[in-house]
Design a protein that fits this description.
The chain has 5 helices and 3 strands. The protein is mostly helical. The relative contact order is 0.11.
């Protein structure tokens, strides 16, 4: 006499094997496709080298290169408040090999310029908010000047009490 537990186990095991065979049969085309990325990835930075967006883009490019095993190249295309590089990115093929590393100028520029060479709502897909930077200009309370544009100081005289200053 055959144990009924053995039959149930055998039926369930056989059903799983058949299901796996069907999955592999219908998904063979997925294994035949090229593995992304097959070529270098270009990250367009629409600002000059050395700026905040460029530095963050380069740091991320190093990490992506290590993770993907393919080169991730930074291509700076500054000009017109970032519009030149953003327009270039909008005309790139939508194949996943061109990324845009930009700032809030991406959304601000259409309000500042009569025309921009891209449509931020239709031509791009968001990947990720990478960095959120808050900037604050501060000075010490007891310093009074009529115009901050002429404010000059020696940081050493404040004994570390001047947290951040730039014009």
């Amino acid at each position: 006499m055959i144990n009924s537990n053995w039959i149930n186990f055998h039926q369930i095991f056989s059903a799983r094997i058949i299901a796996l065979a069907l999955i592999f049969t219908f998904n063979l085309s997925a294994f035949a496709q090229d593995r992304w990325p097959e070529k270098p990835i270009t990250v367009i930075v629409p600002f000059a080298p050395g700026g905040g967006t460029d530095i963050i883009g380069r740091l991320i490019a190093v990490s992506l290169t290590k993770a993907l095993g393919r080169p991730v190249l930074i291509e700076n295309r500054p000009g017109a408040g970032g519009n030149i590089g953003m327009g270039m990115a909008s005309r790139a093929p939508a194949d996943g090999y061109t990324l845009l590393m930009t700032s809030s100028a991406f959304f601000i520029n259409p309000a500042l310029y009569k025309t921009v060479p891209y449509d931020p709502e239709r031509e791009f897909a968001d990947l990720k908010l990478l960095v959120n930077i808050n900037c604050v200009d501060t000075v010490i309370n007891d310093i009074t000047h009529e115009c901050l544009a002429f404010f000059e100081c020696d940081i050493d005289q404040f004994n570390g009490n001047l947290a951040c200053f730039y014009l």
